[in-house]
């Protein structure tokens, strides 16, 4: 998931994309992502759910901003191909939201 989020940042703005963990140097800020939910829910209507906890921390470990970001995408039917398509659509939405939130949070510093 981390690699896909970094890819999303690079596709959005390659000049300001976050460093990968294999890049050299220490960044002034880090975006930390914890996966809170990644599942197919079948209670009311079938849907793919993704929930992330995002934090921006400085190089001293101080939290600059934090947010919980969640989304879901309806499944046409409960089968692997439909689940993959729903997760792909949900991830595209959540990645876009993470990118915009990160940019807005960075602009406020």
TrEMBL record:
Pfam families per the UniProt record, alphabetical: ABC_trans_aux
Lineage of producing organism: Bacteria, Pseudomonadati, Pseudomonadota, Alphaproteobacteria, Hyphomicrobiales
Segments forming domain ABC-type transport auxiliary lipoprotein component: 23-98
Superkingdom, taxonomy of origin: Bacteria
InterPro entries linked to this entry: ABC_trans_aux (IPR005586)
Protein name per UniProt: ABC-type uncharacterized transport system auxiliary subunit
């Amino acid at each position: 998931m981390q690699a896909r989020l970094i890819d999303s940042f690079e596709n959005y703005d390659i000049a300001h994309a976050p460093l990968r963990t294999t890049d050299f140097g220490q960044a002034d800020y880090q975006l930390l992502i914890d996966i809170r939910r990644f599942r197919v829910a079948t209670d009311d209507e079938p849907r793919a759910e993704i929930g992330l906890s995002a934090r921006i921390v400085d190089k001293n470990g101080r939290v600059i901003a934090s947010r919980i970001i969640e989304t879901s995408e309806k499944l046409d039917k409960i089968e692997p191909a439909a689940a993959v398509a729903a997760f792909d659509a949900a991830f595209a939405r959540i990645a876009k939201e993470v990118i915009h939130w990160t940019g807005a949070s960075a602009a406020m510093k």
